[in-house]
Design brief:
Elements (H helix, E strand, L loop, with lengths): L12 E2 L10 H6 L5 E3 L7 H8 L1 H11 L5 E5 L7 E2 L10 E5 L1 H14 L5 E7 H4 L3 H4 L10 E7 L2 E6 L4 E8 L2 E6 L37 H6 L2 E5 L4 E4 L4 E6 L4 E8 L9 H11 L5 H17 L21 H15 L2
Parallel strand pairs: 1-11, 4-8
Antiparallel strand pairs: 2-12, 3-5, 3-6, 6-7, 7-14, 8-13, 9-12, 9-14, 10-11, 10-13
Amino acid sequence: MADRDGPIYDRLARVPEREWRGAGLDSLLDDAREPFVLRGLVADWPLVAAARRSARDVRGYLVDHARDRPFMVSIGPPGHDGRLFYDHDMAMNFRSGTGKLADIFAGIDKGEQLGDIRTVYLASIDIPTHFDGLDEANPLDLGARDPLKSIWIGTRTRIAAHNDFPDNLACCAAGRRRFTLFPPDQFRNLYLGPIDHTPAGRVVSMVDFATPDLAAHPRFALAMAHALTVELEPGDAIFIPSMWWHHVEGLADFNILVNYWWRRTPAWLGQPQEALNHAILAIRDLPPEDKAIWRDLFDHYVFENDGGVTDHIPESARSILAPLTPETAGRLRAFLLRTLSR
């Protein structure tokens, strides 16, 4: 691993690496439920080749493929340390706006020339809608998967630990990326912030990984005992399974990550986060005795979901209690929309 710094990194284990022979990626991903690294997976991409020449070359390569449309960008104020997070008042410590990619990169060029590199971050930019031919020129065969394809571009950044529902294959195209990962069950030890007021749409850890305050966050020491860390060079990739927490740092002056997200369940099924939000609205503040009843019902209908739910109902009359189809899922979604709009 490349040089590690900061108080937590001497105490973390490495993400295991899988041998990559140029084939068999589909089978590697099929049943994977633990993170792993694939060194050199996308080393032959033209995007990576441009990055190896220089940051300016890879920016030019992206501009050549960029569509004529606005790009969302986050910018830190002077003196920003790259941590895209909350300020002391729990507002965001960066401002967001839009601009043409060439103009955004011109600002980075100027900062490099003046030695005044500001925090600039373009997060989760959809590749097909924002670039023409970039995906085709830098392909990755994921078999039958139909992933969302995103690119993340920026200066030195620190992105708070968060998780995502889809599986994720993240490829370092320029600069260096450090990932610190935690299993899904460590959420209590990461001291999560608000669900509905977040820097980028997902709840994040409130712990500053550069200077963790174990007096304020004592259980973070337990999370660190389960943590994995790895640094990626251009061409390397990491697989992050669904719901694994990951803290991500851009370590170079200019960094690019390309990632692929896919679900193991059909896209027409709902998002679990929406169910959690609704449960907070409808159940969390009930009296304890009422919550106990609903906990039992959730176990019966959702988490256990055994034959006791439907065996006594004629098969043709089980409706949404039967395994969902696109049609029954659509009817259920329409019913929820009607009830929520009342």
